[in-house]
Design a protein that fits this description.
The protein is of the alpha/beta class. It has one domain: Rossmann fold, CATH 3.40.50. 41% of the residues lie in helices and 13% in strands. The chain has a five-stranded mixed β-sheet with strand order 2-1-3-4-5, sandwiched between helices. The longest helix is centred in the last third of the chain and has 17 residues. The radius of gyration is 19 Å and the shape is globular.
């Protein structure tokens, strides 16, 4: 049929989509949104969400992935970013397992996202509370607040942060703990996202 032969086929995307769902409405999204300017072959999406607990965040991520029709086998990536903070090991494990079964990578920071910022400036290996991490961070970055954009301060020190993040994971591994265990304090996996963005090729 003439009408059928002239019908256009849907064109394939020329870019990959990286979906980053974060529990924080400010700090995390301010940081990750800086990578949106890296080029037109990668689209980074950081949607708004009202959820802060691990299980609901993962469920929200699953829905976002479905709505955006993302395909991790073709170059798309999906991350769910949250902190240990006051969450229980059971809630975190449930969230991690559900995420894995849906091709979603959990990016956990223990105790909080600010540990990623802190290790740009110093070696920090002692188990700490959120308050302690933030107090130490402000010694190195006095103007820091959750709504403050400090990306420019951090970027020159990113190589040091990568090295320290990997060292923390190795440290906990020697004690037979994974990066998802409550005892892996301090620890962060944020560098996994950053590395993937920086090395992305379509």
């Amino acid at each position: 049929m003439k009408g059928y032969s002239e019908r256009k086929k849907p064109s394939k995307r020329t870019y990959d989509v990286y979906l980053l769902v974060c529990e924080g409405s400010k700090t995390e999204r301010i940081y990750f949104n800086h990578f949106r300017t890296r080029g037109n072959n990668l689209r980074i999406i950081t949607p708004d969400t009202k959820y802060t607990d691990p299980e609901n965040l993962v469920d929200f991520t699953i829905k976002q992935k479905q709505q955006l029709d993302l395909d991790v086998n073709s170059g798309d990536r999906v991350w769910c970013v949250f902190d240990v903070d006051e969450n229980t090991g059971g809630r975190i494990n449930n969230a991690v397992n559900r995420a894995k079964s849906n091709d979603i990578e959990v990016i956990l920071s223990n105790p909080c996202f600010e540990i990623w910022y802190l290790i740009h400036y110093c070696d920090w290996t002692k188990s700490s509370s959120v308050k302690e991490v933030n107090e130490e961070l402000k010694r190195h970055l006095p103007r820091y607040s959750k709504s403050q954009d400090v990306f420019g301060d951090l970027e020159p020190k990113r190589g040091d942060a990568f090295r320290r993040a990997n060292s923390l994971i190795k440290m906990h591994s020697k004690n037979n703990m994974t990066e998802y265990d409550l005892g892996s304090n301090p620890c962060t996996l944020v560098h996994n996202i950053v590395r993937s963005i920086l090395t992305h090729k379509k």
